[in-house]
Amino acid sequence: MVCSDDEDLLQNEDIPELEMGFANIIVVDNLPVVPPEKYEKLENVLRKIYGQLGVIREGGLWMPTDPETKKTQGYCFIEFNTPQEAEFAMEKTRGYKLDKSHIFAVNMFDDFEKYMKVPDEWAPAEIKPYTPGENLLKWLTDDKARDQFVIRAGTFTEVYWNDARRAMPELVYQKQYWTDSYIQWSPLGTHLATVHRQGAQVWGGDDKFVRLMRFLHPQLKLIDFSPGEKYLITYSSHEPSNPIDTHRVVLNIFDVRTGKVMREFKGSADDFTTGGNMGVSGVSWPIFR
């Protein structure tokens, strides 16, 4: 299951890909060119937009200025905590319309170096040998036809065989700091999902639980699978800046196999209230039935 960034570092295992070169930096182009007295206002606008998509590091937003005119040059660099947050911010704000004259063009900082290294002559792609993936249904071949169940105790998460004949569960796998919030089986038992501050992850495999895919969704609160396990629905709600407003809700539908966002829904909590079992901030859950 998924470990938080801090817990991964403490445990020194499954360390996420943090601070790998400049992979956590994006370049936002086509910004307004403003004089020094409007610099702070533009910076605050950018922080408001991108602060909702990830954690901007301290001093991580920089707009270069012209040495002579002191005006900004129409682009900025934004450094996030993780490459996943940076990629998510890039995907969500490409083509963002700030006003009629300024539509964001956003790229990963690392992409510039990659494009500079494109060879002048074409070469065929290297064909990698096939390697079989994890057998996600291995548990169905258990000779005792046992089911598995998962429990959490303190900071530990444990998966057991349910051995009714022995009246004693058999430990399959144990991991500390596996999730920040809760864990959930997929409907057919193919995946085990964990919920974290920055998103969800799904796990599975033969003899141990291997991370299969990450799904980036900052401030994630709830998840659900489609009945056939093809899609993962993620949910978050955000406190309104105005106390009289309702919570802002974000719903993403991911392809479980590829991790790609298939659909995204945003709105107030009132837009998603349909009755039934109430989840977070008055929104019924599961949202799709």
CATH class of the largest domain: Mainly Beta
Strand order of the largest sheet: 2-3-1-6
Query: How confident overall, as mean pLDDT?
Result: 84
User: How far from one another are the termini?
Assistant: 26 Å
Domain module tally: 2
CATH architecture of the largest domain: 7 Propeller
CA gyration radius, whole angstroms = 23 Å
Name the CATH superfamily classification of the largest domain: Clathrin heavy-chain terminal domain
- Spans with pLDDT under 50 lasting ≥5 residues? 1-20
If helices are DSSP runs of H or I spanning 4 or more residues, what is the number of helices? 5
Number of strands: 17
GO molecular function, one term: translation initiation factor activity
Domain RRM: 24-111
Protein name: RRM domain-containing protein
Keywords: Cytoplasm, Initiation factor, Protein biosynthesis, RNA-binding
Give me the secondary-structure topology.
Layout: H1 5-11, E1 25-29, H2 39-50, E2 56-62, E3 75-80, H3 83-93, E4 97-99, E5 102-103, E6 105-108, H4 109-116, E7 147-153, E8 156-162, E9 170-176, E10 183-185, E11 192-196, E12 199-204, E13 210-216, E14 222-225, E15 231-238, E16 248-255, E17 261-268, H5 269-272
Antiparallel strand pairs: 1-3, 1-6, 2-3, 4-5, 7-8, 8-9, 10-11, 11-12, 12-13, 14-15, 15-16, 16-17
